[in-house]
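step=encode ok
step=design start
structure_in=
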């Protein structure tokens, strides 16, 4: 599992190593990844693209990131066709809380105005 942090370096969630599911800090399944896009597990709505470990909003701004990759956003992405909802994954064991990373440089274009919870609740 890869830890996901917000712009304030707070732990907000976990990306499964297989890069197909996202869980919150309580290990509740909150999103799934299909074709480099993130979809809310609750509503099935598109949250935005994912670029490696950078989770982006619908405007291409970074919502969550992992220190194993430099923080970077993108230009405004094209809205994809709705993805088929996968079968609910097995709830993983909660990983050990990671060390808080050093605050990264603000990405070009800035951070998303959405919190992680607002992003996955679209």
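sequence_out=
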């Amino acid at each position: 599992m890869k830890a996901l942090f917000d712009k304030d370096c707070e732990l907000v969630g976990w990306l499964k190593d297989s890069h197909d599911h996202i869980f919150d800090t309580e290990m509740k399944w909150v999103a799934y990844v299909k074709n480099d896009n993130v979809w809310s597990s609750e509503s099935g709505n598109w949250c935005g693209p994912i670029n490696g470990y950078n989770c982006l909003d619908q405007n291409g701004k970074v919502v969550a990131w992992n220190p194993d990759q430099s923080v970077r956003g993108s230009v405004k992405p094209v809205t994809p066709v709705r993805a088929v909802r996968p079968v609910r994954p097995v709830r993983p064991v909660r990983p050990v809380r990671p060390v808080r990373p050093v605050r990264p440089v603000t990405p070009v274009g800035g951070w998303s105005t959405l919190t992680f919870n607002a992003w996955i609740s679209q």
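step=design ok
step=annotate ok -> The radius of gyration is 13 Å.
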